[in-house]
Amino acid sequence: GTHVSADALREMERDLPDAARLLPAAVSFDVVAYGCTSASTLIGEARVAELIGSVVPGAAITNPLTAAKARLASLGIARIGLLTPYVPDISRAMVEQLEAAGIEVSHVATFDEQDDRRVARISRHSVCEALVMLGRRDNCDAVFGSCTNLRGLGLLDEAARRTGKPVFTSNSALAWHIEQLVTDITASEAHS
To answer: Are 60 and 34 in contact (CB under 8 A)?
Structure first.
C-alpha cells in the first residue's frame, strides 16, 4: 500500500521496468523522470536509470535526487537544510547520499510520517514554516524539501523571500532538471 519503509521502497526496483513499459511505445521520449525521491535514494540513481533505460533506450533519465544534486551544483551550493516527511532510516539514507555527493547537510527536519497518503495531507502552512525554520539556521545556504508528495507548489517563493536563500522541493528540482535536459538535447540536435 502506501506504507513508506526501506523494504517497500526497494520492492519498487522490481516493479520499475513494468511501470516503464506502460509508457506508450509509439512515442519517442527525450526525457523520462522517475518521480520518487526516497526510492531513488534506496534503489540508487544509477540503477533507476539502468532499469528505465532498458525499456526506454535513448531517453535522458532523471529522478528527484539526481535533479536536486544538479540544482545545487547549478547554484554553486554545498551546504543545505533538508526537510523530509520520512521515517528516520530513510532520512538518514538521503543524508548519506547527499553527503557522498559532497553536499553538507547541516540541518535536517522530518515530519516522521510512514503513511504516504498522509504526507500529501501535511498542510502547506506546516511545510512552509518548516522550510523557513531550516533556512533561517546558520551553516545553511539553501533548503531542499524532499519528497514528491510534499506540498510545495505556491510557497517556495515565500519561503525563499523569508529566508533570503534558495528553497526548492523534489518536484521543483525535477521540473527544472527536465527543462535543462530538454534544452541540452535541443542544443545538441541543433549542432548535429
So the answer is: no
How many whole angstroms separate alpha carbon 189 and alpha carbon 192? 5
The pLDDT tens digits for 109-162 are: 999 988 878 888 999 999 999 999 999 999 999 999 999 999 998 999 999 999
Helix (H, G, I), strand (E, B) or coil at 61: strand
CA dihedral angle for residue 101, residue 106, residue 111, residue 112, rounded to 10 degrees: 70
Which DSSP helix (H) or strand (E) runs through 141? Answer: none
Distances from the Cα of 150 to the Cα of 46, 155, 180, angstroms: 24, 11, 23
149, three cell numbers: 508528495
Give dist(CA 118, CA 121) in Å, integer.
Answer: 5
Report the distance separating Cα 190 and Cα 78, nearest Å. 33
pTM: 0.92
The cell for 125 is: 502552512
Whats the size of the chain, residue-wise?
192
